[in-house]
Amino acid sequence: MKQQEKLVKEITSMDVDFAKWYTDVVRKAELADYSSVRGCMVVQPYGCAIWENIRDELDRRFKALGHENVMMPMFIPESLLQVEKDHVEGFAPEVAWVTHGGSEKLTERLCVRPTSETLFCEHYKNIIHSYRDLPKLYNQWCSVVRWEKTTRPFLRTMEFWWQEGHTMHATAEEAIAETEQMLNVYADFVENCLAMPVVKGQKTEKEKFAGAEATYTIEALMHDGKALQSGTSHYFGDGFARAFGIQFTDRENKLQYPHQTSWGMSTRIIGGMIMTHGDDNGLVVPPAVAPIQAVIIPIAAHKGGVLEVAARLRDELAAAGVRVKVDDSDNSPGWKFAEYEMKGVPLRIEIGPRDIESGNCVVVARDNREKTVVALAELAGRMPALLQGVHDRLFQRALENRERRTFTALTLDELIDIANRESGYIKAMWCGDEACELALKDRAGVTSRCMPFEQEHLSDTCVVCGKKAKSMVYWGKAY
Amino acid sequence: MKQQEKLVKEITSMDVDFAKWYTDVVRKAELADYSSVRGCMVVQPYGCAIWENIRDELDRRFKALGHENVMMPMFIPESLLQVEKDHVEGFAPEVAWVTHGGSEKLTERLCVRPTSETLFCEHYKNIIHSYRDLPKLYNQWCSVVRWEKTTRPFLRTMEFWWQEGHTMHATAEEAIAETEQMLNVYADFVENCLAMPVVKGQKTEKEKFAGAEATYTIEALMHDGKALQSGTSHYFGDGFARAFGIQFTDRENKLQYPHQTSWGMSTRIIGGMIMTHGDDNGLVVPPAVAPIQAVIIPIAAHKGGVLEVAARLRDELAAAGVRVKVDDSDNSPGWKFAEYEMKGVPLRIEIGPRDIESGNCVVVARDNREKTVVALAELAGRMPALLQGVHDRLFQRALENRERRTFTALTLDELIDIANRESGYIKAMWCGDEACELALKDRAGVTSRCMPFEQEHLSDTCVVCGKKAKSMVYWGKAY
């Protein structure tokens, strides 16, 4: 097992340096590589396969709810970005500007899209005329660019991949219902496919999306106690529609402005998955999005029959819908064990001459390394439960981490004290004033993560100013 | 049928103005819309669904051959683009340049990728060290930008979507085999999924990809007799590897340069599909990539039972794997007929009270409008053959168009005469000199489409200069 030790030793321990552990895992599990373009990453085959699984799961959910995919230009003319005032203020400082095409200087600069509300609005103006044209439920899969100062693979990159849904509705009620529905789609996906428990809530005015009336969010807590905004859904009212002059005639033949939403989830969520489930042996990938759900490792593969049985098991599992691989390379079993632990493959199936003799194999779960002896004839049938077991334990472990790291503060001193000693969510009452939000950032180093939909009445007064509290807020440090 | 006539009349006839017919179909079938970004298009849901089907078909073929997807940055630093001399000469004049990030001026300009050889090479330099690391068989799905002067939806847009495969191999033989294999994948896909017959061949030196040693191509002939380069596969030798310093140690522990390929197919192929199969009633989509393969139109839908039977048929067909839709909207049957003809849905299924009484429905094929009476109980079972029938007739019709439009010229006068009178391929012998290629462009307005793999010996001498001929070439006008 010397090779295994060597491979494992190359990762920094989480407890020693969580940030270093993170980048070690990204590199050693071959998720992403750096590129010579500052702040941009190369997503390698294993990382790309995880993203494709995430994409397929989400895309199926979107389409089942009537959404359709489109592909918009990657450029936005400067004048188009400027149509909605709050929006341009929020995004103009962080966009990449194209000024030349070939050798000619452009008469108008184009920005590389940081988000596509303006492009969708321009198109919607062309195609929405009557109530019969509504709702429009569009989505696109693409990459966007934001000129970030400090970057880390997946968590914050200048270019990142995402989906952005953009919908138009006849009424405010319908649009708000869509905003809530899509937040629920995200929460369902993140909890049931990525095994990450989330808090659903609303962003404060300060933290909401540029140009939105309301931003809803799902927030997940990482292993180190920092929060990650994992998916957002925005309600725009008719603000963009008015700015862009998008109108439709309703059933009474009156001109109306449609109401709008947008919602997005990005490759950032892969960073969240790594920081929620990973350990000192590397990545742990939840079964629903794992490129390889089970790897079969032949033991003493040179002995008669082992490779044949391994191949037969692979075919049986594949036929049962499991994403399975046999590693029959020359590397030692110990090396392979370490390699697939590093890559976070949920189940390892060991099969050797003695196993074949007894008609069994050994299944080892990635998360707790527990070994289960399974009859060869029963393996395919037991896979769903074995995979579900990994998922359930991952979710439970993440939930326990969150519960252990969720605190309550009734006074400012208490909040500052917790923020100094602990890393996690701090629940505290808030009056709704941005001044108090800024004070908490200044004095405790925390920001508002969200006003959870599930409110608790901790006290009557704001933890900062002592005025009447409007809501309970989750505060914390965030990625 | 007044509405139908009205809808149909809105398309220009192909014979009156083929270019106008093309853009009419793109707009009326709701494939794509224009945007305020010059030369960029909005791919609408129906066009996007066709592209997703193309993507899924190709992606499955690529993965079955061991290729893996990655996601590369969209930017290339100017110095990186310049590493390979022929490559930068070919592409630098037509790239979009990013010069500012937010408010800061960049120290080095970034171009928006026109193609990604340089980015792949940079990454391959990081990850290829030993013969054990080879081959690398990578692909990515993305959009690229080329600063084109004149643009048309799908056929030539500043931004277009494509896949670009980039592979590295230990030997020239392996790389050449990959180049040929991927051209065959393209030919198989285009003929068997898009029903477009292709000619496989090699590009001349003048027409090959910037930086490649050899470019292979599949060429398709459009309804109007102009050719469309439909997919290309390039062999690079070790030119980029030497320029980028990519080396590996072989089995004898010697340093070697790997050999490289790239290959691509783009949203252009949708333009080819439109111009191969469309007619004066609109689009015709081959069944393999049709978002809707069959549309069920209830006749006299208010009468008892019609909608129920339509819904039952839909469920039966969907269960049999057919992409099917019922249109139970308020529009008249005539309107619906015209609408789905415009959208090129391969099969229309009409079901009314009298059909139900007799236990039948009427299936109408989009391509020839032939009606087939089919027993309701047999419909699902007969769908594969009915869809295959549409495919086969589309392929046959396109093949006949190509054969009718393929000419042979033994002298320059003959070639010029054919080029003046006809639109199509002209087969003629060529000495291999670029001067003769330019002369044909100048005097007959044709370019070399390819040197087909299936060579014919038409004569011993070049049709232009009379020197010894090296190969038979397909000449023609092209999109």
TrEMBL record, chains A, B:
<dbReference type="InterPro" id="IPR004154">
    <property type="entry name" value="Anticodon-bd"/>
</dbReference>
<dbReference type="GO" id="GO:0016740">
    <property type="term" value="F:transferase activity"/>
</dbReference>
<dbReference type="InterPro" id="IPR002314">
    <property type="entry name" value="aa-tRNA-synt_IIb"/>
</dbReference>
<dbReference type="InterPro" id="IPR036621">
    <property type="entry name" value="Anticodon-bd_dom_sf"/>
</dbReference>
<dbReference type="InterPro" id="IPR016061">
    <property type="entry name" value="Pro-tRNA_ligase_II_C"/>
</dbReference>
<dbReference type="InterPro" id="IPR002316">
    <property type="entry name" value="Pro-tRNA-ligase_IIa"/>
</dbReference>
<dbReference type="GO" id="GO:0004827">
    <property type="term" value="F:proline-tRNA ligase activity"/>
</dbReference>
<keyword id="KW-0030">Aminoacyl-tRNA synthetase</keyword>
<dbReference type="GO" id="GO:0017101">
    <property type="term" value="C:aminoacyl-tRNA synthetase multienzyme complex"/>
</dbReference>
<protein>
    <recommendedName>
        <fullName>Proline--tRNA ligase</fullName>
        <ecNumber>6.1.1.15</ecNumber>
    </recommendedName>
</protein>
<comment type="subunit">
    <text>Homodimer.</text>
</comment>
<dbReference type="Pfam" id="PF03129">
    <property type="entry name" value="HGTP_anticodon"/>
</dbReference>
<feature type="domain" description="Aminoacyl-transfer RNA synthetases class-II family profile">
    <location>
        <begin position="50"/>
        <end position="286"/>
    </location>
</feature>
<dbReference type="InterPro" id="IPR033721">
    <property type="entry name" value="ProRS_core_arch_euk"/>
</dbReference>
<dbReference type="GO" id="GO:0140096">
    <property type="term" value="F:catalytic activity, acting on a protein"/>
</dbReference>
<dbReference type="Pfam" id="PF00587">
    <property type="entry name" value="tRNA-synt_2b"/>
</dbReference>
<dbReference type="Pfam" id="PF09180">
    <property type="entry name" value="ProRS-C_1"/>
</dbReference>
<dbReference type="GO" id="GO:0006433">
    <property type="term" value="P:prolyl-tRNA aminoacylation"/>
</dbReference>
<comment type="function">
    <text>Catalyzes the attachment of proline to tRNA(Pro) in a two-step reaction: proline is first activated by ATP to form Pro-AMP and then transferred to the acceptor end of tRNA(Pro).</text>
</comment>
<keyword id="KW-0067">ATP-binding</keyword>
<dbReference type="InterPro" id="IPR045864">
    <property type="entry name" value="aa-tRNA-synth_II/BPL/LPL"/>
</dbReference>
<dbReference type="InterPro" id="IPR017449">
    <property type="entry name" value="Pro-tRNA_synth_II"/>
</dbReference>
<keyword id="KW-0648">Protein biosynthesis</keyword>
<dbReference type="InterPro" id="IPR004499">
    <property type="entry name" value="Pro-tRNA-ligase_IIa_arc-type"/>
</dbReference>
<comment type="similarity">
    <text>Belongs to the class-II aminoacyl-tRNA synthetase family. ProS type 3 subfamily.</text>
</comment>
<dbReference type="GO" id="GO:0005524">
    <property type="term" value="F:ATP binding"/>
</dbReference>
<keyword id="KW-0436">Ligase</keyword>
<dbReference type="GO" id="GO:0005737">
    <property type="term" value="C:cytoplasm"/>
</dbReference>
<dbReference type="InterPro" id="IPR006195">
    <property type="entry name" value="aa-tRNA-synth_II"/>
</dbReference>
<keyword id="KW-0547">Nucleotide-binding</keyword>
<keyword id="KW-0963">Cytoplasm</keyword>
